Automatic annotation (TrEMBL):
A GO term for molecular function: DNA binding
Domain Transposase IS116/IS110/IS902 C-terminal: 236-320
A GO BP annotation: DNA transposition
Top-level lineage group: Bacteria
Name of this chain's protein: Transposase IS116/IS110/IS902 family protein
Organism this protein belongs to: Amycolatopsis tolypomycina
NCBIfam families: transpos_IS110 (NF033542)
Limits of the Transposase IS110-like N-terminal domain: 4-127
Pfam families: DEDD_Tnp_IS110, Transposase_20
Length: 370
């Protein structure tokens, strides 16, 4: 960074302070971006897809080099800087929320992946376990599988051992569930040779150990997410939205950011969220398909919010039912509801007001009354 400042100073000469420096970079976060913004440069985030398509204007051979890759964003900034989005000026609190929420969600995804790997391993040598245990990442399931990872060992589990694991997991109807699990584990099923079964059991023990750690860290980070989110000034407004609690609210805040100038209109926020459709018009033909390129973390949080809002907001439920009555499928109607909720959130953040059911759905009075 020091060498960069020196080079720019030498090129600018005596007009270094008055000269505006534009920087194009194919990312919007990290130490480099923070240092460039702190130096007073105007940093423009260039989408890698934009850069790739702009490169085709300069040559079609497909040849690449570091110098050529640097020339592309530099030329984009020089000729199309007015059309590029400046790096958002999110606060340090919002950045902290983003760090913990993204790590928390990543660990949840990793837990799901390892659970599927465990399911696949059990299917190969111990299918009875899939009948006995419906929730493979539950604490009682992991405890029993770690204690008895082979069919022979599982068949020797007593009712007391199974009931103890269920009690520690705070299950209900312990006696009935323990009997059902024991019967499933002792039922006849296809097996593998003993040496293959032993190898599978070693792999399952490793997967169980990883899942145990992941589950523990997910719970630990959940507390951190709630703590960091609660410290943000916009937390109360975001948490007032239907379907948004501390965890989902923190994810929405993290992915949207808190720069007040980033989204000029509700439409801009919806486009960033990926909930609004893409309009494609040519001649007399006009279609509006859904967006498939979007922020996976943000769209996941928004669709979860929309589904949860169906039970918490009469207006949201009426809006969803109206789209279903028009022939829209569940996913399409849910995406439309998420799009509407993003607009409501935008209005609340712009005006600094909490969510109000009557105000939010005042343009659908008949639906709300129904």
């Amino acid at each position: 960074m020091t060498r960069l400042h020196t080079m720019i100073g030498e090129l600018a000469g005596d007009d270094a302070d008055a000269l505006g420096v534009l920087v194009g970079i194919e990312t919007d976060r990290g130490p480099w971006v923070a240092a460039l913004v702190a130096a007073g440069y105007s940093v423009l985030a260039v989408n890698p897809l934009q850069a790739a398509r702009f490169r085709d204007r300069l040559g079609v051979s497909g040849a690449t080099s570091d110098a050529g890759d640097a020339h592309v964003p530099a030329d984009m900034v020089r000729t199309h800087g007015h059309e590029l989005r400046p790096v958002a000026g999110d606060s340090a609190r919002a950045e902290a929320v983003k760090v913990v929420t993204r790590t928390h969600k990543t660990l949840i995804w990793e837990r799901t992946r390892h659970t599927q790997r465990l399911r696949d391993a059990l299917r190969d040598y111990f299918p009875a376990a899939l009948v006995a245990f419906t929730d493979l990442d539950a604490a009682d399931t992991l405890e029993l599988l770690a204690k008895a990872p082979t069919p022979a060992q599982a068949a020797r589990l007593t009712t007391a051992q199974i009931s103890g694991a269920l009690k520690r997991a705070r299950r209900r109807d312990i006696a009935g569930k323990a009997a059902a699990i024991q019967a499933a584990l002792r039922a006849e099923h296809l097996t593998q040779p003993e040496v293959v079964t032993a190898a599978h059991a070693a792999s399952v023990r490793a997967l169980i150990a990883v899942l145990t750690v992941l589950d523990s860290q997910v719970k630990t980070l959940q507390g951190q997410v709630e703590a960091y989110f609660g410290q943000h000034p916009a937390a109360e407004i975001i948490a007032s939205q239907p379907g948004l609690g501390p965890i989902l609210g923190a994810r929405v805040l993290a992915e949207f950011g808190d720069d007040p100038d980033r989204y000029a209109t509700a439409k801009a926020r919806k486009n960033c969220a990926g909930t609004s459709p893409i309009t494609r018009a040519s001649g007399k033909k006009k279609v509006a398909p859904a967006r498939f390129v979007h922020n996976d973390r943000l769209i996941d949080a928004l669709l979860t919010q929309a589904f949860s809002a169906l039970r918490r907001s009469p207006g949201a439920r009426a809006y969803y039912d109206r789209h279903r009555a028009r022939g829209a499928g569940h996913n399409a109607a849910l995406r439309q509801l998420a799009n509407r909720l993003v607009g409501i959130l935008h209005g609340c953040l712009k005006t600094g007001t909490l969510y109000d059911e009557t105000t939010a759905w005042s343009h659908h009075p008949k639906n709300i009354a129904a």
